[in-house]
Design goal:
With 230 residues, the protein is mostly helical. Helix content is 77%, strand content 0%.
Length: 230
């Protein structure tokens, strides 16, 4: 009798429409926490005065976060295709964001892309001859692409695989490398933001893993238990 009642309750729950927060809350919270953590890391680099124009890397990272959030939502989209599209979009967005750092005579996206390509060719030839370059524009471009990759990879790994520890480790390495060598040091508030977001990511992803095991075992639990857990 008890088993029949429990089975009927589960069937009723499966047929009932899910609340918007139940269906989309975990996805939205993962994106929000991942974005907060990556923002803290990238912003700490941008404010460390490594080179002029580093503030451009923050919107580049945000672009990577948004693209990953959309691509990871499309379960039918294979990973290799998503990553390829992300690389193309990241390169295009980086060129767009670095445009204001180039000569004012370069007015179009194509002009900016060709300018960066020329800088890359010159730096490559210099490196092949054993020289050391000091091209600040290329340096900012590389950091911008790394920021895009960091934002994209963080959100992708959270949404597709739930790899909380790998995401935290990836961001922590970049943060602590920057904190070790940067002068002046970035605001301490960014470090606290990173700590808080990283802790909440681990807690949230741990709950989601347990929720999947509860669902597999047909165990009942409150719909909003995850929010209480966090």
């Amino acid at each position: 009798m008890i088993a029949d009642t429990a089975q009927a309750f589960r069937a009723t729950r499966e047929r009932a429409p899910q609340h918007w927060m139940t269906a989309n809350g975990p996805w939205a919270l993962s994106v929000l926490l991942g974005a907060a953590m990556t923002f803290a890391v990238v912003q700490s680099v941008a404010l460390s005065n490594w080179a002029h124009g580093l503030t451009a890397i923050t919107p580049v990272a945000i672009g990577g976060i948004l693209v990953a959030a959309v691509f990871a939502r499309f379960r039918w989209l294979p990973g290799y295709l998503a990553h390829l599209l992300s690389a193309v979009l990241g390169l295009a967005w980086t060129v767009k964001m670095l445009g204001p750092l180039m000569d004012t005579g370069l007015t179009t996206w194509r002009d900016h892309a060709l300018e960066l390509l020329i800088h890359g060719i010159v730096a490559g030839r210099l490196a092949a001859q054993g020289g050391v370059g000091d091209d600040l524009l290329l340096f900012v471009a590389v950091l911008a692409l790394i920021s895009w990759a960091l934002g994209y990879a963080s959100i992708w790994m959270l949404l597709r695989y739930g790899w909380a520890w790998w995401v935290v480790l990836l961001n922590a390495v970049m943060l602590f490398v920057n904190l070790t060598y940067a002068s002046p040091k970035p605001p301490i508030s960014l470090f606290f933001l990173f700590d808080a977001a990283a802790l909440l990511i681990i807690v949230q992803q741990t709950y989601l893993q347990r929720a999947r095991s509860w669902d597999a075992a047909h165990m009942d639990y409150p719909d909003f238990l995850g929010w209480r857990f966090v």
